[in-house]
Each structure stands twice: as structure tokens, then as C-alpha cells.
Amino acid sequence: MWIIAQIFINAIIAGSVYALVASGLTFIYATSRIFHLAHGVVILFGAYIFHFVWVEQGLSPALGVLFSILGSVAIGLLMNELVYEQQRKRHAKRLAYLISTIALLMLGTSSIILIFNTSLKSFNIQTTVYRFDQLNITLMQIILIVISCFLLLILSAVVKYTKFGKAMRATSDNDEVASIMGINTRQIRRLSFGIGSLLAAVAGILIGLEFNIDPNMGVYLAIKGFTAMVIGGVGSIGGAIFGAFLVGFFEQIAVWYFGAGWKNSIAFVLLFFFLLLRPRGIFGLKRFR
Amino acid sequence: MLLHIENLSAGYGQLRVLNNVSLSVGVGEMVVLIGPNGAGKSTILKSIFGLTTKMNGQILFDALNITSLPTHSLIEQGIGFVPQGRLIFPTMTVKENLEIGGYLIDHKETLHKSLDYVFGLFSVLKEKQQELAGNLSGGQQQQLAIGRALMMRPKLLMLDEPSLGLSPKLTQEVFHILQKIREEGTTLLIVEQNVRLALSYVDRGHLLSNGKIIFSGTAKELGDEKIMHNAYLS
User: Fold this and answer.
1) Exposed e or buried b for every residue in A231-258, given b needs 16+ CB within 10 A?
2) Does B87 contact chain A (CB < 8 Å)?
3) pLDDT digit string, tens, across residues A165-207
4) If we measure between CA atoms, which residue out of B95, B48, B108 comes closest to residue B75?
């Protein structure tokens, strides 16, 4: 019985990080209709910059967080302005966006290897472990869950109640009509990339603190975020968050019953399963186009 | 004259749709653009709203040259546009749709006044303000699309085929509403396929064929069989 409870706890820990990734991807997809797989690289940069500033330069962790967020947001915005918006100007097809995002993902991963080398980075943080009978959870993990839930709540409120949130949803529903209403849709896309990249930086920081960081992580995180998005129903932020926890849950089950080697492949299995049997996802209203 | 178009040629990219079109709409008038499919009726509305490529000519609105103004400035100048096909935002509530219509309004109070104005015109929108727009019926969605454009309290409201996909009864209702909006002082420029019905409401009309205006006159003059016959069958 305690095994299931422990799996559940671990799933929530992993899921809350994936939820940050998936909701960022959803934000970006909603306004730009781009499956921004290069988001994985934005997360990586967030994690590496944080490690560089705090561990390698020995500066304060707060400064690390600040530089990490600034760096990730800058990279996300640059990807949008220098690549996607240029393609949009030339009326690119969807496939063209997909190819360029994969190119950005590979380019970014290679840059990380060149700048920070391939070695595994870790923070070696001492944290209190709480034990309840046979269950374990660390203080760091509790902080991670709280930060993630807090950000997701703020995000949901922004989308639901603010003028920007409404403009974002209108752009997502129909960007041509949104611009007829006087909404600057390019500005809205820019803001979505900014917010998505900010969430990516936070995800990167949390992953670094809880697990370790290596350059291959970007690809897997992008795929897991994408899977969570498909499971929840593409375009729905609530759905993406739910999907993220589901990915986390299946991953932990795979690790427990089949071994740690299966951790990263379970997302692909889920993705395949949903694309085949329920492409519009659990909460998706619209057909996945 | 509220709107004055002079020798306008416009289209999409390299494609030229309108050829030297000139027309004007007076304050408080209700004017219809009619003609066969592909004549360029919608392109005129889109050109006024800055959604086409202009090759030559100019558009004056309230004596201001608006030929190359961006969309948001046109809205601020007092032009409203209801695009073809009841393009509401389906996953947002009725009220949110209207709020987006008033996106360029900065003062909360002005926004509330506009909401009250639209709710006064369309009681069904007031009743269903918390419902998702995608769940409304076709006629209600058209009311929402019109109401959304009225949020900015435009001087000129342009509608692209408001009757498209509506039953004859609902079409009648939509025109009744347009009549009411007009009586409150809004100038209307409408593209309509339902010629008979439109002519029974409007003051004047322009008949288009192949990107040119081939006849302009009062509703009565346009009712003449011969003119119509020539336009639609030539």
C-alpha cells in the first residue's frame, strides 16, 4: 500500500514540473499555433544559467534565479522574433514551423554542450527529509510543489480575468477576428512566448534542484510537455496541467515496475496511444487539427 | 458625407479585385452593396477596414484620409466591422466576447455603458451573458457579432452578409435590429445577397459587377428588373 502512496507522491513532484512545461507550451500554441519543441532548450538554458551563477560563480541563488529567468525569456523571445515571426511574414506552412522548431532544439542543445560541456551538473543541496512510516518527502520537494502550484494558479487567474488573458483567448479562438477587434496579435504572441519562457526558466531551476541537469534533458522535457498537452486536449491549460500529472504518474509506475531505464520512454508510449485512440485529448473540445 | 471612396483600386497581394470604385455614404444613411458573387462587395468593406492591398485611390472618413491607417486607428475613428460568417469567439462567454469588442476602451465606466447599450438592444445577450458564445443559436450568434461591433459605439457600422446561413425569419429579425440601430443615429453600410429584403430597408444601393460599380441609385431605382438582370446575367 505504501508503495502506491510513494508512487503517488513522486508523481506529483514530477508532474508539477511537467505542468509548468506543458502550460508554457499551451500558452505559446494557443496564440501562435506552433508546437514549440525548442521550449526544451529554453528550459535547459534556465537550468544551466542558474547553476552557473550560483554554483560556479558562487553568487547568491536569488541572483541565479534572476539571471536564469532573464536568460530564458530573452532566448524564447529571440526564437519567436528571429525565426517564427519571420516565417509568419512569409506565410509559412505548419510543417515549416515544425521543422524550424526541431532545428532550434538541436542547435540549442549543441550550444549548451559547447558552452557548458556534457558533464552532469548537480547542486548537492542538503535538505530535510520528512518520514511518515515508510513514506519519504523532502523539504525541497514540498517547496517545488508549492512554487509550481502557486505559479499555475496565478497563470489561470491571469488567463481568466485579465484583459491580456481575454485578448489571449480571443487570439487563440480566431486571430484574424481578434485583430479586427483592435487586438495587436503580434504583441499577444510576444507576451505568450515571454510568459511561456518564464515558466520554462522556473521549471529548469526546479529540475536542477531536485534532479540533475544534462544536455539531453531538453528533448525529453519537450516531448513530455507535448505529451501532456495532447493528453489534456491541445489548447486547454487545465487539460495540459492534468496531462502533466498523468505523465508523471505513468512515469513513476514504469520506473517502479519495469526499472528506471523506462522513465523517459513512457511519455512516447502515452503520446502514441492518445494520438491513435483519442487525438483530441481528454478535455479537448475541438478536433486536433 | 461620412464616407467617401474615390477611384479605389484594391485587392489581395498581386490580385486586383476592385477597379476605380467611387462611392459615398452620408451621415445616418443605410446603404447596401449588391451584385453577383466575386463582384468585390466584401473587398470594399475590407478595404475600408484596412484589410486589403491598395493600388490607388483614397478613402475619406469624416473628412479624414484613412486610406492607410492601421485597423486599431480605424476602430478609434469610429468604424465598426461585422465580418462574414458570424465569427464570434466560441470558447469565451457572451460577455467576454462583448468585452473584446470594447478592447480599445480604456475607461471601465465607458465599457460598462457600452455593455448596457448593447444589452438594451439585444435582451437575449443580457440573459445569456455568462454562457459560452459557441453554444448560442445561429441568430443569437449574429446578434452577438453585431453587438460586439457596437461596443465601440461606431459612427459607421459595416456588415458583411449578415443574413448568411440564417432562416428567412431570423434574417428579418436581423434587419429589424439594423433598422433600430440606424434610427439611433448609426450609419450603415451592408453587403447583402438577399437583395429584395435589403432593398426594402435601405435608402440607397450600389450595384457591383467585376470589381466596378455599374449602377448607383435609390432602393426604388435598384428594384428595377432590367438593371438587375443585366448585372447578374451579363
Assistant:
1) bbbbbbbebbbbbbbbbbbbbbbbbeee
2) yes
3) 999 999 999 999 999 999 999 999 999 999 999 999 999 999 9
4) B48
| Three-state secondary-structure class, residue A213 | strand
Q: Are B1 and B7 in contact (CB under 8 A)?
A: no
- Taking the C-alpha atoms of residue A68 and residue A205, their distance in angstroms, rounded to an integer, is 8
Q: Is residue A31 domain-resident?
A: yes
- The DSSP output letter for A261 is G
Which among A173, A183, A285 is the nearest to B103, CB-wise? A183
Confirm whether A285 is domain-assigned: no
Contact B83, B75 (CB under 8 A): no
B76 alpha-carbon distance from chain centroid: 16
List of chain B residues whose C-beta atoms are within 8 Å of the C-beta of residue A238: none
Neighbours of B173 (CB within 10 A): 15
Q: Count the neighbouring beta carbons within 10 Å of the beta carbon of residue B128.
A: 18
The answer to whether position A279 is within a domain reads: no
Contact B45, B189 (CB under 8 A): yes
CA-CA distance, B140 to B122, in Å (whole number)? 9
Look at chain A and report how many structural domains it folds into.
1
Non-local (6+) Cβ contacts of B165 within 8 A are B85, B86, B138
- The reply to whether residue A166 touches residue B104, judged by beta carbons under 8 angstroms, is no
Q: Which domain holds residue A140?
A: 19-216
Quick check: B83 contacting A, CB < 8 Å? yes
Whether the CB of B227 is below 8 Å from some CB of chain A: the reply is: no
Residue A173 belongs to a domain: yes
Which residues of chain A are within 8 Å of residue B76 when distances are taken between CB atoms?
A: 182
* Rounded Cα–Cα distance for residues A268 and A227 (Å): 7
Distance CA A136, CA A16 (A): 17
Is A260 touching B (CB cutoff 8 A)?
A: no
Contacts of A174 in chain B (CB under 8 A): 87, 89
Q: What is the pLDDT of residues B47-103, one digit of tens each?
A: 999 889 899 999 999 989 999 898 889 999 999 999 998 789 999 999 999 999 999
Distance from first CA to last CA of chain B, Å, rounded?
Answer: 32
Total length of chain A: 289
B72 reaches A (C-beta below 8 A): yes
**Contact B27/A at CB under 8 A:** no
Encode burial over A44-59: b for 16+ CB neighbours within 10 A, e otherwise.
bbbbbbbbbbbbeeee
